[in-house]
């Protein structure tokens, strides 16, 4: 163990917090973990076995404010009283990503965007893994980055990075960065100012060098304008659905083209224009680190996406049910509806995050025959869509939502759970919402 480096306080005792605590302890810090909620038993046991002191159900300010440095869970907002007091005392606050990046020499591939980052991260990881590279998966997905740095010696990490994680990253450097899109999301955490959120996403570029690579979606006006302002000194590689950038990645005549590699889009498992962007970006990133064409082809053809992202759940009397619970903002729903080829019974609702629904109006008119509002407060959805859909129904019960969806559908239709909202009004998280939806469908099928 190194000499004592000072007092590291970890705020939050979930996957990232416990991993950060273990790594900090191993690197010579005195560590104290504090969580206002109760810890999961598995995490409690890990901390006890490592003899790391912790508290749960409270934040003891006197002890926390003794910190030399604080690792903050991305779920804790900047306006939280304990964070404000730490700021007042100029105690540095970092993310688990920042901490872990200090202690690895691996090449880091960071992926962010308002939508699509999980799919793109998983696909990039799959392509590198298929190539036989020694690679870890971390960030906003999978196991703790910090704990993997402690326990493994990967040559690469593929990191899904949320804006909340980027906010507390200062020195971490990505060797390859992907920015898929920026659309209004989480504005409640950014003083309802879109530019603040844009600034957060662009933090993925900080510390990158001229020989590092930035992959971005060319048709995003927000990204283009910000690049024009910032003029980052990095290698820029665009992804496009309408142009043929060289070098870069694009669609042409039904083929996914990434520099000298191409494959028919119809052969690939991910559908919809948004997934074309994701596949182009992931393939380009894999190519940048040396994955060869035959491996790219094999990886793309064998990829299976994570749950809750346009996930087929089952069919009842000719009606398809699709779980897209991860669609917690309007842009995600746009992509989901855009990919639908049959009439849709749309299930939406939850905890609103400052949504504006204008961009959905055309698609809803074209594809949605009924809207089922699943949430405690559906006023905003009802107010906007009551004159835009033939049928509108409200409920706070997922089983009733599924039953009503089947009742309103005809054979060949699709019942799509794509909420556009956070899940915390009725569910623990988006996974819980998606799982309850799937269970409700399965009960209807039996």
TrEMBL record:
According to UniProt, the name of this protein is UDP-N-acetylmuramoylalanine--D-glutamate ligase
Similarity remark: Belongs to the MurCDEF family.
**Pathway of action:** Cell wall biogenesis; peptidoglycan biosynthesis
Report the EC number(s), separated by commas if there are several.
Answer: 6.3.2.9
- Which residues does the UniProt record annotate as the domain Mur ligase C-terminal? 308-421
Protein task? Cell wall formation. Catalyzes the addition of glutamate to the nucleotide precursor UDP-N-acetylmuramoyl-L-alanine (UMA).
Q: Where in the cell is it found?
A: Cytoplasm
Q: Does the keyword Electron transport apply?
A: no
- Reply yes or no: does the keyword ATP-binding apply: yes
Originating species: Larkinella bovis
- Catalytic reaction annotation: UDP-N-acetyl-alpha-D-muramoyl-L-alanine + D-glutamate + ATP = UDP-N-acetyl-alpha-D-muramoyl-L-alanyl-D-glutamate + ADP + phosphate + H(+)
Fetch the Pfam families from UniProt. Mur_ligase_C (PF02875), Mur_ligase_M (PF08245), MurD-like_N (PF21799)
Q: Which residues bind ATP?
A: 113-119
Kindly give the Gene3D superfamilies that the UniProt entry links to this protein.
Mur ligase, C-terminal domain (3.90.190.20), Mur-like, catalytic domain (3.40.1190.10), NAD(P)-binding Rossmann-like Domain (3.40.50.720)
């Amino acid at each position: 163990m190194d000499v004592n480096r000072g007092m590291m306080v970890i705020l939050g005792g979930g996957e990232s917090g416990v991993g950060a605590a273990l790594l900090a302890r191993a690197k010579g810090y005195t560590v104290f973990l504090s969580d206002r909620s109760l810890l999961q038993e598995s995490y409690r046991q890990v901390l006890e076995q490592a003899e790391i002191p912790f508290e749960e159900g409270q934040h003891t300010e006197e002890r926390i404010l003794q910190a030399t440095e604080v690792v903050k869970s991305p779920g804790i907002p900047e306006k939280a009283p304990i964070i404000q007091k730490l700021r007042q005392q100029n105690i540095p606050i970092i993310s688990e990503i920042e901490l872990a990046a200090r202690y690895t020499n691996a090449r880091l591939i960071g992926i962010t965007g308002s939508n699509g980052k999980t799919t793109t991260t998983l696909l990039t990881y799959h392509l590198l893994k298929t190539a036989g590279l020694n690679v870890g998966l971390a960030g906003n997905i999978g196991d703790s980055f910090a704990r993997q740095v402690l326990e493994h010696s990967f040559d690469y990490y593929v990191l899904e990075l949320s804006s909340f994680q980027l906010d507390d990253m200062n020195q971490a450097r990505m060797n390859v960065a992907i920015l898929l899109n920026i659309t209004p999301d989480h504005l409640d955490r950014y003083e309802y100012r879109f530019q603040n959120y844009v600034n957060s996403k662009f933090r993925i570029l900080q510390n990158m060098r001229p020989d590092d690579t930035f992959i971005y979606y060319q048709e995003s006006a927000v990204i283009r304008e910000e690049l024009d302002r910032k003029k980052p000194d990095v290698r820029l590689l665009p992804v496009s659905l309408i142009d043929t950038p060289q070098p870069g990645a694009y669609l042409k005549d039904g083929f996914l083209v990434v520099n000298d590699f191409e494959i028919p889009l119809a052969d690939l498992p991910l559908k919809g224009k948004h997934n074309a962007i994701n596949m182009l970006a992931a393939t380009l990133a894999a190519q940048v680190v040396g994955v060869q064409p035959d491996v790219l082809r094999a990886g793309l053809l064998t990829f299976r996406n994570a749950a809750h992202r346009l996930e087929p759940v089952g069919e009842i009397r000719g009606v398809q049910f699709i779980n897209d619970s991860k669609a917690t903002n309007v842009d995600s729903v746009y992509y989901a509806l855009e990919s639908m080829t049959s009439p849709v019974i749309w299930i939406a609702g939850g905890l609103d995050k400052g949504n504006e629904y204008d961009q959905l109006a055309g698609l809803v008119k074209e594809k949605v025959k009924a809207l089922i509002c699943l949430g405690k407060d559906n006023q905003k959805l009802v107010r906007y869509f009551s004159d835009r859909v033939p049928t509108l129904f409200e409920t706070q019960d997922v089983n009733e939502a599924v039953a009503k969806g089947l009742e309103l559908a005809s054979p060949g239709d699709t019942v799509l759970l794509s909420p556009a909202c956070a899940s915390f009004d009725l569910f623990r998280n988006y996974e819980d919402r998606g799982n309850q939806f799937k269970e409700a469908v399965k009960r209807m099928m039996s």
